């Protein structure tokens, strides 16, 4: 069984202070979660609940975690990616009497799943996931916990896809909110968060410019669209690859070049996968790539770039730069993989994740969704559920208020007109 992070790191006090500074900075720039925290502290909607979390443990996640604890919950948390944890943030979280953190950066698979098991030893009544590893672990290894779990929330596109497949097979045995699919998450976090954070991390990790390069984006979902738009805004030539005809057409109508990955490979300088699927960049593409090509992933798991095949193809591999693995091929070309093919915006040594303001919106949805599960969980059967629209609007209204933005309201006559089928042309 894993131990809390404070029992496994040197100089916990020094790390705690560093983590505290990061959390406090993020909290100052997260007005939605801050407003919800005040409400939670006053009303204690999560009192008596135990929340198990598997998330990217960095400063913005910590702000959410502390808000949930302020609402009365006991919280146990670990990472959802072996390279995305900030150890100092984990230590600072663990200093809270209501929070136990098992997250640690750079662990191997056994320790990674051991930490998930440690979270589940707290017998959570609510689960909050990023990638669905926690909910899968419950079903596969701890089915006895299912009866006491009220429900859960899933943050990501990949996790929601996995849960919907599980639901289709009749294997999901408690209700889960698809937080990723709600507008306040999908339209801001996926587009602007992934777009900005991925390209910033690529630049910082490589110290190379985006401008003037050809950037190949694998997939044109919301995340891929964000990367493509931001890269174009940074004066890159952008190529999109797709398998879904409507998404490919959308990219074409947005003015991007669209072609198969094997063709794009010969033109690309920088590659960014965003699909949530495996084998997006494979041998045929590697064989066509230019010397010095940079490969990165902004999807979820480290399966989008076929690293096993690339390793087999390479005569030599070496650390070209901190966070950059060079693969030297027999013909002398060098291909460079960032962050071991994991999420470049979180797993790169210099990565900070999505901008704080973007995560404020996404994590506010997590907070109100957890509250909804506690207050009205009996209304939701086992399976994947959309976040109620009024909760999404609640978060948007708090954000507008924090930004000092006022909007119009429908008059009674307008509302009646919109709700009626009896008004003709």
UniProtKB/TrEMBL annotation:
GO biological process: L-homocysteine biosynthetic process; one-carbon metabolic process; S-adenosylmethionine cycle
Keyword Endoplasmic reticulum among record annotations: no
Metabolic or biological pathway, per its Swiss-Prot or TrEMBL entry: Amino-acid biosynthesis; L-homocysteine biosynthesis; L-homocysteine from S-adenosyl-L-homocysteine: step 1/1
Compositional bias of kind Basic and acidic residues: 7-21
This protein's GO CC annotations: cytosol
Keywords attached to this entry: Cytoplasm, Hydrolase, NAD, One-carbon metabolism
Location within or outside the cell: Cytoplasm
UniProt EC number: 3.13.2.1
Residues engaged in binding substrate: 130, 155, 185, 189
Region (Disordered): 1-21
Keyword tRNA-binding appears in the UniProt entry: no
GO molecular function terms listed in the Swiss-Prot or TrEMBL record: adenosylhomocysteinase activity
Co-factor note (free text): Binds 1 NAD(+) per subunit.
Catalytic activity: S-adenosyl-L-homocysteine + H2O = L-homocysteine + adenosine
Top-level taxonomic group: Archaea
S-adenosyl-L-homocysteine hydrolase NAD binding domain boundaries: 190-351
Names of required cofactors: NAD(+)
Predominant subcellular localization, coarse grouping: cytoplasm
Binding, NAD(+): 156-158, 190, 219-226, 242, 277, 298-300, 345, 354
PANTHER family documented for this protein: ADENOSYLHOMOCYSTEINASE
Family assignment from sequence similarity: Belongs to the adenosylhomocysteinase family.
Biological role: May play a key role in the regulation of the intracellular concentration of adenosylhomocysteine.
Stated name of the protein: Adenosylhomocysteinase
Species this protein is from: Halorhabdus utahensis (strain DSM 12940 / JCM 11049 / AX-2)
Phylogenetic lineage: Archaea, Methanobacteriati, Methanobacteriota, Stenosarchaea group, Halobacteria
Gene that produces this protein: ahcY
């Amino acid at each position: 069984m894993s131990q809390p992070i404070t029992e496994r790191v040197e100089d916990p006090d020094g790390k705690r202070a560093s983590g505290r500074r990061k959390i406090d900075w993020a909290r100052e720039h997260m007005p939605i979660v801050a407003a919800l925290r005040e409400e939670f502290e006053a009303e204690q909607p999560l009192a008596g609940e135990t929340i198990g979390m598997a998330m990217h443990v960095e400063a913005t996640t910590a702000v959410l975690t502390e808000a949930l604890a302020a609402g009365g919950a006991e919280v146990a948390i670990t990472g959802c990616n072996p390279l995305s944890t900030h150890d100092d943030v984990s230590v600072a979280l663990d200093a809270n009497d209501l929070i136990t953190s098992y997250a640690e950066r750079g662990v191997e698979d056994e320790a990674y799943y051991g930490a998930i098991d440690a979270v589940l030893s707290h017998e959570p009544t609510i689960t909050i996931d990023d990638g669905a590893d926690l909910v899968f672990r419950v079903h596969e290894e701890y089915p006895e916990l299912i009866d006491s779990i009220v429900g859960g929330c899933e943050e990501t596109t990949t996790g929601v896809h996995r849960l919907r497949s599980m639901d289709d097979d009749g294997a999901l045995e408690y209700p889960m909110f698809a937080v990723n699919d709600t507008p306040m998450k999908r339209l801001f976090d996926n587009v602007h968060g992934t777009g900005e954070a991925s390209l910033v991390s690529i630049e910082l990790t490589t110290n190379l410019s985006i401008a003037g390069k050809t950037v190949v984006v694998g997939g044109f979902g919301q995340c891929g669209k964000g990367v493509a738009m931001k890269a174009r805004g940074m004066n890159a030539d952008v190529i999109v690859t797709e398998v879904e005809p409507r998404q490919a057409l959308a990219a074409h109508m947005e003015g991007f070049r669209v072609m198969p990955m094997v063709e794009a490979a010969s033109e690309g300088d920088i590659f960014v996968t965003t699909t949530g699927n495996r084998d997006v960049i494979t041998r045929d593409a590697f064989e066509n790539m230019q010397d010095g090509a940079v490969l990165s992933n902004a999807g979820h798991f480290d399966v989008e770039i076929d690293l096993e095949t690339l390793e087999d193809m390479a005569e030599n591999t070496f650390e070209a730069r901190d966070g950059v693995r060079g693969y030297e091929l027999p013909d002398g070309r060098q291909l460079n993989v960032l962050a071991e093919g994991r999420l470049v915006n979180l797993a790169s040594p210099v990565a900070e994740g999505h901008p704080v303001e973007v995560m404020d919106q996404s994590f506010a949805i997590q907070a109100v969704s957890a509250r909804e599960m506690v207050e009205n969980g009996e209304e939701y059967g086992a399976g994947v559920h959309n976040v109620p629209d009024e909760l999404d609007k609640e978060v948007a209204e708090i954000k507008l208020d924090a930004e000092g933005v006022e909007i119009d309201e429908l008059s009674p006559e307008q509302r009646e007109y919109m709700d009626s089928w009896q008004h003709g042309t």
